[in-house]
Specification:
Low-confidence stretches: 391-399
Number of domains: 2
Strand order of the largest sheet: 2-11-12-10-9-8-7
Order of helices and strands: HHHHHHEEEHEHEHEEEHEEHEEE
CATH topology of the largest domain: Purple Acid Phosphatase, chain A, domain 2
Number of strands: 13
Strand content: 15-25%
Shape: globular
CATH class of the largest domain: Alpha Beta
Distance between the termini: 69 Å
Helix content: 25-40%
Length: about 400
């Protein structure tokens, strides 16, 4: 029996098996495995890969798809032997799309090994985060249209110290131990506030509530200073996320507001719930429900930066978002802003943006999901220094 027939039979078998878990997961795997198989077979013909290596890498892909049937995120051995090789194989094959398309016209593009070399780099990059200090200056000009922004002159001696954690996506590249270390690093930065902007889990982690609970425990050391909103993936297992945040001492804001006194001055925090439709109406209603009640710096936790354009002008000072994973594939590691995401959608992908007097910071994410690896876009552990004038005392209704 040919390699092609065996490959497609394996795809059918895996999809049939994972349909026992959920229809949505089965559709996701059916699309992923079918695209992978359609690309890898012509690439196999061009690469001098021993059959045993191809069989092993294919097996890791099928086993990775089946692992969620058993509700545990596997330990280092399984990650090293199964999930990481699978991510490498899927990513390299996906990046080979130009080679396959051109090959359909009888043209052999050189260096067919290059996509897999990039995937190998991605394996290394996906295993680490990059620490940075980011300065955000408020009141540094009125920007007529939404655009990428560079902070203007810094005007305060004691900026507001923020640490944002977003999109950890507990799973193959984000075991609970790694997220716990990231949370401890956040505490060690001695911030005024730690702000969590959603997407804590992946489908692979839904079966064990203790994973996220254990990972967020270091945040207990900063009571009253940790706030969170939900991302789109959190609505797949809201009870697990809410319980873990409660255990960590984080206050979850779902279309709610909190007023906080910090060493840098008063801060008003609004957390927006995640919606797919009628985002403009949702955000207009949210801002109308919570008009400015003080001269405090006003922050909005908004998971998806694509919704920033719907925030009513003048209603907030700074929006913190995630969701994009920084574009995940791009040239950020080389000091350039370009990411693959900008080819497909017209939305802020990473870094500081401005519209009018409002500022938007899009965090590159602590973890990632979807495309299996980061390539050229490192995960982020930043200390955000927000330079804003002290805007007054909290009103008597402060929470």
């Amino acid at each position: 029996m040919s390699v092609s027939i065996v490959s497609w039979l394996c795809v059918a078998g895996v999809v049939g098996a994972v349909s026992l878990r959920s229809r949505a997961y089965a559709i996701f795997r059916a699309v992923q495995l079918s695209l992978h198989t359609a690309l890898v077979l012509p690439m196999l013909a061009r690469l001098d890969v021993p059959l045993g290596v191809f069989v092993y890498l294919s097996a890791t892909l099928y086993v990775s798809a089946l692992l969620p049937l058993v509700p545990r995120v596997r330990g280092p051995l399984v990650r090293g032997l199964v999930t990481v090789p699978s991510a490498f194989f899927v990513s390299g094959t996906a990046l080979s799309l130009p080679w396959v398309i051109v090959g359909l016209f009888g043209v052999a593009v050189p260096w067919p090994w290059l996509p897999y070399a990039l995937a190998a780099v991605g394996v290394l990059q996906s295993s680490f985060t990059r620490s940075e200090v980011v300065h955000i200056a408020m009141n540094d000009g009125d920007v007529p249209e939404l655009s990428r922004h560079r902070a203007g002159p810094l005007r305060v001696e004691r900026p507001l110290r923020l640490v944002q954690i977003t999109d950890p996506h507990i799973g193959p590249f984000m075991p609970p131990e790694r997220l716990a270390r990231i949370c401890q690093d956040a505490v060690d930065k001695d911030p005024d506030l730690i702000l969590l902007t959603g997407d804590f889990l992946t489908m692979e982690a839904h079966g064990d509530p203790e994973l996220l609970r254990r990972a967020l425990e270091p945040l207990q050391k900063l009571p009253g200073k940790v706030f969170a909103c939900l991302g789109n993936h959190d609505y797949e297992a809201p009870e697990i996320v809410q319980a873990a945040l409660l255990h960590a001492g984080a206050r979850l804001l779902v279309d709610e507001r909190s007023l906080v006194e910090t060493a840098a001055g008063p801060v008003e925090i609004i957390g927006a719930g995640f919606v797919w439709q009628k985002r403009a109406e949702h955000l207009a209603e949210l801002m109308a429900r919570f008009p400015r009640s003080s001269r405090a710096l006003r922050l909005l936790l908004l998971h998806d930066p694509g919704a920033f354009k719907h925030v009513p002008p003048g209603s907030v000072d700074l929006v913190l978002s995630g969701h994009t994973h920084g574009g995940q594939v791009g040239l950020v590691s080389l000091g350039l802003s370009w990411t693959m995401l900008r080819l497909f959608v017209n939305m802020p992908d990473h870094g500081l943006w401005a519209r009018g007097t409002e500022r938007l910071y899009v965090h590159r994410g602590t973890g990632h999901y979807g495309f299996p690896l980061r390539i050229g876009v490192p995960a982020e552990e930043s200390l955000l220094l927000v330079h804003a004038p002290t805007l007054g005392a909290l009103p008597s209704t402060a929470e």
